[in-house]
């Protein structure tokens, strides 16, 4: 849970766990234990690299519903907006222009939100 919170942020994790019910709570526990406890916690790749891989995998698989959360995570893991742009441009070549176009729309919105100076 510690890694999940560090990467995705408390608000995202709190919302996901609060939405869990008797039907989905086992799945939430699996995601926390397997993805965040085993995979994201492994040595061998740093979190910046894992974020690059994750963004690309989401584009490639068409699972863009997770792209906003993982764009925020990428920023939290130290990627700059320009580096995220480069990941998405690279993904366009290998994953397809339409998938990357949709990803750019989502990522741009998140980056604008996350990098907007406080009012």
TrEMBL record:
Gene3D superfamilies: AhpD-like. It comes from Streptomyces fulvorobeus. GO terms for molecular function: peroxiredoxin activity. InterPro entries: 4CMD/NDH-1_regulator, AhpD-like, CMD-like. Residues 26-108 form the Carboxymuconolactone decarboxylase-like domain. This is Carboxymuconolactone decarboxylase-like domain-containing protein.
